[in-house]
Amino acid sequence: MSRLLRWLIPLSAVPVLALLAYGFRTDPRDVPSPLVGRPAAAFALTTFAGEPVSLDGLRGKVVVLNFWASWCYPACYEEAPVLERGWQQWRERGVVVLGVDIQDTEDKARKFMDQFRITFPNAPDTTGRVSIDYGVYGVPETFFIDRRGYIRSKHVGAVTEAVFRAAVERLLAEPSEPRAGG
């Protein structure tokens, strides 16, 4: 019996090690969000410029909702110019880029926005409620929301020009009226 126990204990570790090895090979950005295809959570914030902004007020527009922080380096620093260029290029076609700054100080957030000459609306999520409602577990995370207010895709990590363009063009190509049956 002691011989069996001597082999049983090391062998019981094999499934655990295999599961860990699989987990380390899996990219957390590939984990699908359960929010995709569902209505985006409503929120109302006040931008750094002192203006109210709400998701309901953006209905009828394609919304690129980006969660970021000034301490998020290098990813947020890489995507900031991409988001600003996207805002400049697409806003006349009904696209709104909206930044939500999380777990940050106002001074550092403003310095970040100044550094990248950010002109799209940005608001602090001072209570953390919006980031919780969207299931944000790190920054940057970006949600692409259609004109009806449904989350259509989520991107974890720095948004690239290609990711931005593909998501926005796909959403702008859709009819603005609700689909039959939904």
Largest beta-sheet details: 5 strands, mixed
Architecture (CATH level 2) name: 3-Layer(aba) Sandwich
Summed up, the helix count is 5
Question: What structural class do the secondary elements suggest?
Answer: alpha/beta
Task: Write structural notes for this entry.
- The protein is 37% helix and 19% strand.
- It is of the alpha/beta class and 182 residues long.
- It has one domain (33-172): 3-Layer(aba) Sandwich (Glutaredoxin), CATH 3.40.30.
- α2 packs parallel to α5 (161-172).
- It is globular and about 75 Å long.
Sum this structure up briefly:
With 182 residues, this protein is of the alpha/beta class.
What structural keywords apply?
182 residues; alpha/beta; Glutaredoxin; five-stranded mixed sheet; two-stranded antiparallel ribbon; 19% strand
Note the topology.
Blueprint: H1 2-25, E1 44-46, E2 52-54, E3 62-68, H2 75-90, E4 95-101, H3 106-115, E5 122-124, H4 129-133, E6 141-145, E7 151-156, H5 161-172
Parallel strand pairs: 3-4, 4-5
Antiparallel strand pairs: 1-2, 3-6, 6-7
Helix pairs in contact: 2-5
